[in-house]
Design a protein that fits this description.
135 residues; mainly alpha; Multidrug-efflux Transporter Regulator, Chain: A, Domain 2; 2 domains; two-stranded antiparallel ribbon; 5 helices; 4 strands
Length: 135
């Protein structure tokens, strides 16, 4: 199947599919006219890539994991070194979440203290605009 069909069947944009190919995550044969030609396994591979990206893994991590991937979700049977790498990634994510939670708590405390001292409530903050928005 050509890239447009793979895109339609997986719901992944063609430019993303080309990126996956450039990263070594997806393979395509080239026809004489230069068009990419994907086999039926490409659909499963794209679904695996999407699930692993959704888990927060980098394309480099995914390239390392894919040879062990089985099924759409994917499962990773018999890949103990890969499980160790994923556990390490999970620990780093937990540490980042802890740091963010502490930062959020400190910021909320500063806001609460400022509102109590001033005796008035400040307008809500719109993070997208990075400025106070009138209530």
């Amino acid at each position: 199947m050509r890239i447009g069909e793979l895109s339609r069947r997986t719901g992944v944009n063609a430019h993303q599919l080309r990126y996956y190919e450039a990263q070594g995550l997806l393979e395509a044969d080239r026809r004489a006219n230069g068009y990419r030609e994907y086999d039926e396994n490409a659909m499963l591979r794209v679904k695996q890539i999407r699930h692993l990206l959704g888990a927060g893994l980098s394309s480099e991590d995914i390239a390392y994991l894919l040879p062990c991937a089985v099924g759409e979700t994917p499962e990773l049977p018999g890949c103990m070194e890969l499980l160790a790498a994923m556990r390490s990634r999970l620990r780093r994510l937990d540490e980042q979440m802890d740091r963010l939670a502490r930062s959020r708590g400190a910021l909320a405390d500063y806001i609460d203290a400022a509102e109590q001292v001033g005796g008035e409530s400040y307008p809500p903050f719109d993070e997208a605009d990075q400025e106070a928005v009138p209530a």
